[in-house]
Amino acid sequence: MSWTRKHLLTIEELSLDEINQIHATASAFKKILGRNVKKVPALRGKTIVNLFLEPSTRTRMAFDMAAKRLSADVISVDAATSSTTKGETLRDTAQNIQALNADMLIIRHSASGSPLYLSRILDIPVINAGDGAHEHPTQGLLDTFTMKEHFGSLKGRKVVILGDILFSRVARSNIHALTKLGAAVTLVGPSTLVPHSFRDLGATVSHDLKTALADAEVVMLLRIQHERQSSSHFPSLGEYTSMFGLNKARAEWLHPKAIIMHPGPINRGVEIDSDLADGSRSVILEQVSNGIAVRMAVLYLCSGGIPEQAIAGA
């Protein structure tokens, strides 16, 4: 199938074929990243603007590196250096970026729906790098890409997402991607952070850690999103860790070949012990590396690239 989307705003709107197409294109680019010369001229002459109005390390650097590996020119703007600090609206900021002849805008913003809003007023592609507690589509794509590298098909695989589900855009994007790919998704954590309403997305909701982790083939840890919470949803971090932190003993409940994932940043000793984060089951750094290839695929496809040519180039 040919790629027809101009923007990447959510995983919810993607079809299974589109997810698989991004993954296939990312696989081709990952082979290119393994070469001595890691650049391809796919986006030569294009200018991509990273507009990150929330803090970011991994996502911002991965988008920056992905664009440069495609030979695009990259300009990065953050909250401290943008005119939004002077009261300029997001609309005016984005329209000025377009007027400066940018070819694509990557946006991270605290307001849910901001990428969709910009996609309706701009003529250039808009890529969502995380909008509030709504979605983080490229994270969901790289997470499922990493899982497929380990297990092949995800159909019927038991995947557990553990932690702050309520405020997590990563959780929402992964739920949409995993259910489309046929995985059995279980969400677990305190009842205040894992409401039963998430069942409407096709996931199982549990508040019993041992039952949820039993024979899980993937466990994804999520940090507590303090910056999005207006009040505490559990008594203390120590009590959260005692009930829901993943340690060596609890990891024994997992499937023997299970992998441990985390989108970062990690709060060591809170949601996961350091020996697990750095252990043989951990694929956390693989996620980071795969983020470059997946984002190369997204930038390439949304700029009008032909999937078959990317695969042939590998």
What is the subunit organization of this protein? single chain
The CATH superfamily title of the largest domain? Aspartate/ornithine carbamoyltransferase
Main beta-sheet annotation = 5 strands, parallel
**Percent helix range:** 25-40%
Q: Strand content of the residues, in percent?
A: 5-15%
Residue ranges: pLDDT <50 for 5 or more in a row?
A: none
Strand order in the largest sheet: 7-6-5-8-9
Write down the secondary-structure element order.
Answer: HEHEHEHEHEHEEHEHHEHHH
Word description of this protein:
The radius of gyration is 19 Å and the shape is globular. The longest helix is centred in the C-terminal third of the chain and has 19 residues, at 284-302. The strands form two sheets. The chain has a five-stranded parallel sheet with strand order 7-6-5-8-9. The chain has a four-stranded parallel sheet with strand order 2-1-3-4, with helices on both faces. It has twelve helices and nine strands. The model has no long low-confidence stretch (mean pLDDT 94). It has two domains: 16-136 and 291-313, Rossmann fold, CATH 3.40.50; 137-287, Aspartate/ornithine carbamoyltransferase (Rossmann fold, 3-Layer(aba) Sandwich), CATH 3.40.50.1370. With 314 residues, it is an alpha/beta fold.
Summarize the structure.
The chain has 314 residues and is of the alpha/beta class. The chain has helices at residues 16-33, 58-69, 90-99, 114-119, 137-151, 169-180, 209-213, 237-244, 248-251, 274-277, 284-302, 307-313; strands spanning 47-52, 73-78, 104-109, 126-131, 158-162, 184-188, 204-206, 218-221, 259-261.
